[in-house]
Specification:
With 287 residues, this protein is an alpha/beta fold. It is built from nine helices and nine strands. The chain has two domains: 153 residues, Rossmann fold (3-Layer(aba) Sandwich), CATH 3.40.50; 123 residues, no CATH class.
C-alpha cells in the first residue's frame, strides 16, 4: 500500500497535487483532523482493504494540532505503517501573488496582511518540512511540469531530486530576474550583435554558439562555473534548499547568455541529486 501525506504552504500547490494524485488512482482525503490520523492509518492497513493508494491532505486549517504530525508519524512507524510526506512550498513573493490574484484570505491572518500569515505558517510547518520525503518548490513550475514530477514519483517510481535547478538566460537591459540566487555577467565576451550576419540570430543557432565558444574565455567560464556548482549543489541539498535559480546575463539576453546557459545546462544534466530546467527569459523580445 502507498500512503502519502500531502502538506505544505498554503498556496503552494497542495490542492492541485491532490487532484493529480486522484487522477492516477489515489483515494484522496482532504483536511482530516490530525487527531484522527492514527486511527485512519490503522483502518486502511487492515487485511481485506480494497484501497492500495491513499493520499491525505493536511494543512494549517488543522490549526496548532498540525504541529503534532511528526509525533504521529513516529507512532505510525512503530506500528510498521510508513507514510511518505510530500511538502509543497514556493517563494514568499509567489505565495503572496497567488493570494492576491485569487483574492483569498490567509487562514493564519484572516484580518491582517497575507505576509504575516505566510511568516506564521513557515514557523508552524518548519518541523514538518524537515520530515518530508519529498519537497517540491512550485515557484517556477507550470501545471504540466508539476504533473510530470508527480508522475515521476508515483507512476514511474523514479527517484525524485529535491533540489530543482533552473538555469535562466536574461538581458540586463530588461532587468535581473527577481528570483535569481546566483547571477553571472557574461558581457566580458565579444558581442555577436555587432556582426551583421549574426545580429539577427540567437544563441540557439549554431552560428552564434560557434562564434561565442571560439573564445577561450567562454570555455574557461563554463569550467569554473561547473566547478563552483559542483561544490555548491551538494551543500545546498544538505541544507535543505529545494530551488536554485542560476541567472546568466548579457546585454539583451539573445546571444552570449543563451549560449552559455545552454552550455552549463548540458554540463549539469548528469549531476545526481538535482532536477534541471532551462529558460531563456528574454528571447520573447526577438520572436
Amino acid at each position: 500500500m502507498r500512503f502519502v501525506i500531502v502538506t505544505g504552504m498554503s498556496g503552494g500547490g497542495k490542492s492541485t497535487a491532490l487532484k493529480m494524485l486522484e487522477d492516477i488512482g489515489f483515494y484522496c482525503v482532504d483536511n482530516l483532523p490530525v487527531s484522527l490520523l492514527d486511527k485512519f492509518a490503522e483502518l486502511i492497513v487492515q487485511p481485506g482493504t480494497e484501497l492500495s493508494k491513499i493520499a491525505l491532505g493536511l494543512d494549517v486549517r488543522a490549526g496548532e494540532a498540525l504541529s503534532k504530525l511528526p509525533g504521529v508519524l513516529d507512532s505510525l512507524a512503530e506500528k510498521n505503517i510508513h507514510a511518505d510526506v510530500i511538502f509543497f512550498e514556493a517563494s514568499e513573493a509567489a505565495l503572496i501573488r497567488r493570494y492576491k490574484e485569487t483574492r483569498r484570505i490567509h487562514p493564519l491572518s484572516p484580518e491582517g496582511r497575507v505576509e504575516d500569515g505566510v511568516e506564521k505558517e513557515k514557523k508552524l510547518l518548519k518541523a514538518i518540512r524537515k520530515r518530508a520525503t519529498y519537497v517540491i518548490d512550485t515557484t517556477n513550475l507550470l501545471t504540466r511540469e508539476l504533473k510530470a514530477q508527480i508522475d515521476e514519483i508515483f507512476v514511474n517510481d523514479k527517484a525524485y531530486n529535491n533540489l530543482m535547478v533552473s538555469v535562466v538566460s536574461f538581458g540586463f537591459k530588461y532587468g535581473i530576474p527577481v528570483d535569481a540566487d546566483l547571477v553571472f555577467d557574461v558581457r566580458f565576451l565579444p558581442n555577436p550583435y555587432y556582426i551583421e550576419e549574426l545580429k539577427n540570430k540567437t544563441g540557439l543557432d549554431k552560428e552564434i554558439r560557434d562564434y561565442v565558444m571560439q573564445f577561450e574565455e567562454a570555455g574557461i567560464f563554463l569550467n569554473k562555473l561547473e566547478d563552483m556548482l559542483g561544490f555548491l549543489i551538494p551543500n545546498y541539498i544538505k541544507e535543505g534548499k529545494s530551488s536554485l535559480v542560476i541567472a546568466i546575463g548579457c546585454t539583451g539576453g539573445k546571444h552570449r547568455s543563451v549560449t552559455l546557459a545552454e552550455g552549463i545546462k548540458s554540463r549539469l544534466e548528469d549531476k545526481e541529486g538535482i532536477g534541471l530546467k532551462l529558460y531563456h527569459r528574454d528571447l520573447k523580445y526577438y520572436a
